[in-house]
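**Fold tokens**
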Amino acid sequence: MRLRSREPTDPPMIKPNYLSTEEDRRIAASAIRLTRRIAAQPALARFHPEEYLPGATARDDDEAGLVKAAGDIGTTIFHPVGTAKMGLPSDPFAVVDERLRIAGIERLRVIDASVMPTITSGNTNAPTMMIAEKGAALLREDAKARAA
């Protein structure tokens, strides 16, 4: 993720780099093969499983085709967190401090699920709302301090 410009209203540039490593590509192709083997099991025959995507044109023996298919149909279906980890100044992986301020950039904060150092064991909705509430309170506190 990168800033598009100095304008705060400009949307960020987001490039998730899906399937950018050889291991990612190998796992994606293997996942399609495994799913096909599972769907072909006799125990599932009575349910008549039918592959819609990627479909028969993506052959098991065509690694490049399976990787392309995985990229075409893949999406983020989980709740990503941790891309802007909150942590101590001594943590080289921490992006924001306890007040959600980005290290080294004045008056810029991250106030979303990306500050969670690791994913929660449950849905991320409630923790994300709490981060938003806390972030709003921190913004109000800082605005009052600047006005004083």
